[in-house]
Amino acid sequence: MSSDTKTLTQLCAEVAAGTVTARSRVEMYLANIAQRDGAIHAFNEVHSDAARARADAIDADVAAGKNPGPLAGAVIAMKDNIVMREGRTTCSSKMLANYRSPFDATVVTRLYAAGAIVIGKTNLDEFAMGSSTENSAFGVTKNPWDLTRVAGGSSGGSAAAVAAKFCDAALGSDTGGSIRQPAALCGCVGFKPTYGRVSRYGLVAFGSSLDQIGPFARTIADATLVYDTLCGLDPHDSTCADMPVVTLADKVHLPLKQLRVGVPREYRSSDNAPSVAAVLEQAIVAARAMGAEIVDVDLPLTPLGISIYYVIAPAEASSNLARFDGIRYGHRATLAPGDDLETLYCKSRAEGFGPEVQRRIMLGTYVLSSGYYDAYYKRALQVRRLIKDEFDRAFTKCDVILGVTSPVPAFEIGGKKDPLSMYLCDVYTVNTNIAGIPGISFNGGFADEGGVKLPVGLQLQAPAFAEETLLRAASMFERALA
User: Fold this and answer.
1) CATH assignment of 3-230?
2) Which of 52, 115, 218, 299 would give a disulfide with 72, using CB separation of 3.0 to 4.6 Å?
3) Both ends of the chain: CA-CA distance in Å?
4) What residue segments make up the domains of the chain, in order of their start?
5) What is the pLDDT of residues 326-353, one digit of tens each?
6) What are the catalytic residues?
């Protein structure tokens, strides 16, 4: 069996048994990165020496008869808005171009404890604000399937790294679809757990009530194995749920009996590209063939999700990014004689933040300002509650909700100049974050776009903290569509 056909569980077991070395797996991926990442630009930094040193330490533990952990030798890429002592944490922004963290994020320490190796930091839309990774201050990440097209965003570097086989898995953050949408466009698995299931300590905040860290992988089982190491209570994160941690890696392949799959009428929109709509219809046929019941459900507030998201997320971002002022953190402008403190703030932030981040900060400041708070932010929070109630009602009729992840396959770099058209790429993902429920994207088929074969992602959503149901259902679809 080649390494390409083995699960991450099998590969880690081989490292733990000493039949394969962690060092050899790191060298394989470093060679792949050296050969191809110049064209793709999945990484902002590759930690070659640190990865080799960690691999050697794992191999030494194995030789000494020690158990290195369930992720023994797993090579992981880290989105560059998750802090690590190793290297820089830039958020793909000039504002933090030289920032080095004095501590590791909780997810990093948990990966290390499980025996994983972090190979480097991946590119993203600046401060995770975007749907294409075109907003990075360090250049665009290109889609491994077609280098003229975007990898999605904001975690485009992580998705591209997994799809290009630069690592076994990767971590990203998802505020409105930033794990699931790039996973869909790059043809890999992207999993956003329930809000509060995975600690956000060490994640540079964008929208604090929406952000969630989750894994990318090539299969549902691989994503589940990584997820098992991440979840659980963390005293450093007050929003982390105090709930029992149930290991799911040994359960994910078990089929669900009498699975009810909800298909919202709103998800079968005429706005979906025909090739994307066809993949959804094929998935519905496959669901029936595997014995699932298809249930029509209504989520009429789906079209309002983008509007609600672009009030709540920028409002929280304007607060979270206020700390980057050139004094406490970040880029500091050079002042001319006679410039005052206010000028320093203005120049530093104008130079340090890119156009999309500036746009969202200004929008967020506006909706929180006196005279507009009730009309925009308060009303958005009220509709947010209605969206959550809408999902709760739908889940009384079904176990999971099926749809496409993105209404279009990967589009050409520079193909969406209008911000609104870019925002609409997340129409099926933002409400998952607004409601705080888990969602997963996996490859459902392919679209033929002018003779170019591009992956199309399917999304499943489940009630809050129903990760076991979600992952087992996704695994059933993965097998049925293979």
Assistant:
1) 3.90.1300.10
2) 115
3) 18
4) 3-230
5) 988 899 999 899 899 999 999 999 999 9
6) 79, 154, 178
